[in-house]
Amino acid sequence: MPENITPYKNSTLSKKEQIAQMFDTISENYDRLNRVISFGIDIKWRKKVLQIVTQSNPKTILDIATGTGDLAILMAQTKAPKIIGLDISAGMLEVGRKKIQYKNLSNTIEMVLADSEEMPFEDSYFDAITVAFGVRNFENLEKGLAEILRVLKPNGVFVILETSVPDKNPYKQGYTFYSKNILPIIGKLFSKDNVAYGYLSESAAAFPYGEALNNILREIGFIEVKAMPQTFGVATIYSATKK
Hints:
The chain is about 45% helix and about 20% strand. It has nine helices and seven strands, in the order αααβαβαββαβαααββ. It has helices spanning about 15-25, 30-40, 40-55, 70-75, 90-100, 140-150, 170-190, 195-205, 210-220, and strands spanning about 60-65, 80-85, 110-115, 125-130, 150-165, 225-230, 235-240. It has a seven-stranded mixed sheet, with helices on both faces. Helix 7 (about 170-190) runs antiparallel to helix 8. The radius of gyration is 17 Å and the shape is globular. The relative contact order is 0.16. The model has no long low-confidence stretch (mean pLDDT about 90).
């Protein structure tokens, strides 16, 4: 099991409660800050997730840890009639609902406040499930992945977009310097929460990636597991399916 890193070291709250509190606090600036931190490259990564999901011609899509709904909104391009964005942060969801309403997608996308480790959906319900930069925030990674497997239809597609660490220098050295020194400073400048982006940096560095995460997915029961590093390995897209 990955190291359980939490945002607020001295808090008595559970990790998921801390995560909800943290994202509620930074929700108003989250989208703008994301673009700055990733230099906008995260948009390209999300479009690759869209390409993978579109190939399966899904009718029902679940976007877990949807945040302000960027990926759920992008998934509307699949023409799926039912898309659900799920998150534990009410603040992030509220920002997302405004974006969805602005884009006239309220009839297609529903934003749901719920715990990804105990989802209110029937077994084998979704044709496609996505998680962008969210699995490392699960309190119990294995439990969260098992719950995803439960609600995914057989032969359905599961796609993760998550940060990873480049294996080769100088990219590895550059990533380490940026994540430890630059990212927290940017976060403090733009965010009301001084620890939030320090946590995001720390959790990204400690989270299993590549073959390590592939093996966890296989242990849970996913098949056809594949890892596709992006931009020198600073992020990785994972795809899998269910028997």
